[in-house]
C-alpha cells in the first residue's frame, strides 16, 4: 500500500483547500477515538454517583459528544459536512486511578472518513466532564486523545500501532 507523502489539504502552491472527494466510492466508514480524564477522588465519586451539581455527568457528556460529532465541519476548517448515521460514546471509570476513559465510535456510509468526528466527539465529551466537575476539582486533566481505529475507504483498516489492509 502506498503511503501518502503530501498534505492533502494544501494545493500545489501551498494554499489550503478542501479535498475533492467527488470521484471517491461510497463505503461504510467507522472510526473510534479515545480520551482520558483524570481527576481527584472527590470529583470521580461525584461523576460515577451522578451527584454533581449540574446533574448526570456521563449523560450530559454523551449528548455533548454526539452533538459535537454532528457539528465537526463547523469547528474544523476544511472538514466535509457529513451525514453521520451513528455515534456512540462509552465511559469506563477506573476507580483505582480516578480516571474516566472515553471511547467514541462514529459510523456512516460516504466518500470520506469520520476520524475527525470521532476525535471531536471524544474531546467535547471530555471537556463536558471537566465543565461539570470543575467546581470540585479545577485540576482535572484531559489527555491521551487519539484515534484507536478506522475502517473503510481506500486506505483500509487502521488500528493504533499497526496499519492493516484488508
3D structure, described in words:
- The chain has a six-stranded antiparallel β-sheet with strand order 2-3-1-4-5-6, with helices on one face.
- The chain has helices at residues 41-49, 57-70, 72-75, 115-133, and strands at residues 27-38, 86-94, 99-110, 141-151, 157-159, 162-164.
- With 166 residues, the chain is α+β, with helices and mostly antiparallel strands.
- Helix 2 (57-70) runs antiparallel to helix 4 (115-133).
- The chain has one domain: Molybdopterin cofactor biosynthesis C (MoaC) domain (Alpha-Beta Plaits).
- It is elongated, with a radius of gyration of 18 Å.
- Strand 5 (157-159) and strand 6 (162-164) form a beta hairpin.
- It is 28% helix and 30% strand.
- The chain is built from four helices and six strands, in the order E-H-H-H-E-E-H-E-E-E.
Amino acid at each position: 500500500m502506498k503511503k501518502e507523502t503530501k498534505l492533502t489539504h494544501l494545493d500545489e502552491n501551498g494554499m489550503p483547500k478542501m479535498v475533492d472527494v467527488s470521484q471517491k466510492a461510497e463505503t461504510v466508514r467507522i472510526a473510534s477515538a479515545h480520551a482520558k480524564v483524570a481527576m481527584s477522588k472527590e470529583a470521580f465519586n461525584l461523576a460515577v454517583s451522578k451527584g454533581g451539581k449540574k446533574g448526570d455527568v456521563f449523560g450530559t457528556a454523551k449528548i455533548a459528544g454526539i452533538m459535537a460529532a454532528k457539528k465537526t465541519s463547523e469547528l474544523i476548517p476544511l472538514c466535509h459536512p457529513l451525514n453521520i448515521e451513528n455515534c456512540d460514546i462509552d465511559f469506563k471509570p477506573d476507580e483505582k486511578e480516578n480516571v474516566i476513559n472515553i471511547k467514541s465510535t462514529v459510523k456512516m456510509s460516504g466518500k470520506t472518513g469520520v476520524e475527525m468526528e470521532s476525535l471531536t466527539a471524544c474531546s467535547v465529551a471530555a471537556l463536558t466532564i471537566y465543565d461539570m466537575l470543575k467546581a470540585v476539582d479545577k485540576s482535572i486533566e484531559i489527555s491521551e486523545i487519539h484515534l484507536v481505529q478506522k475502517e473503510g475507504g481506500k486506505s483500509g483498516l487502521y488500528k493504533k500501532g499497526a496499519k492493516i489492509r484488508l
